[in-house]
Amino acid sequence: MVKVQIYVTLKAGVLDPQGSAINNALHTMGYNEVSEVQTGKFIELHMEKTDDVQEKVEEMCHKLLTNPVIEDYTYNMEEVVSS
Amino acid sequence: MVKVQIYVTLKAGVLDPQGSAINNALHTMGYNEVSEVQTGKFIELHMEKTDDVQEKVEEMCHKLLTNPVIEDYTYNMEEVVSS
């Protein structure tokens, strides 16, 4: 089994209204030291380890998990040793 | 300036309908090697470096960025050297 952690963020230049809203809220609450907020998604998959697991993950990201037009993603993978 | 990356996930035992929906969709698409999907949020803050920056981040997480009743969070911080 492998655990895959995928981080999806908006591409540079794409408006992030959720990030702006959080930034405004933090300023209203007095956290004026915050200058920029960006939001994204985090997806964790547990899947069987196969030879083409990396290829599969990229395929899933392109087809379902992300919108490649406006989103970028990075991922890391670690093997889970089941007891 | 510091860049703070916050990962928010649901606590163990809290239902994750979005994760289940992704899991079902992946199975429908033929990715039967996926056994579990968990979703979360990813928030990146850019803020001024102060002595109590860590404390501030935890305070913001508790007050606004996460729901401590059902969500856990982890974060990492790195210094940004502006040119």
Report the order of strands and helices of chain A: EHEHE
Going across the biggest sheet of chain A, name each strand in turn: 2-1-3
What's the CATH H-level homologous superfamily of chain A?
Phosphoribosylformylglycinamidine synthase subunit PurS
Q: Rg of chain A to the nearest angstrom?
A: 17 Å
Number of domains of chain A: 1
The main pleated sheet of chain A reads as: 3 strands, antiparallel
Low-confidence stretches of chain A: none
What integer is the average pLDDT of chain A?
A: 93
Instruction: Categorize the overall geometry of chain A.
Output: elongated
Helix/strand-derived category of chain A reads alpha+beta
**Strand percentage of chain A:** 35-45%
Give the helix level of chain A as a range of percent: 25-40%
Please, how many helices of chain A?
Answer: 2
CATH architecture of chain A: 2-Layer Sandwich
What is CATH's topology name of chain A? Mth169, Chain: A
Summarize the largest interface: chains and residue counts.
A-B, 33 and 33 residues
Strand count of chain A: 3
Q: Which quaternary structure do these chains form?
A: homodimer
Quick structural summary:
Chains A, B: It comes from Sinobaca qinghaiensis. The structure is a homodimer of 83-residue chains. Chain A is α+β, with helices and mostly antiparallel strands and 83 residues long.
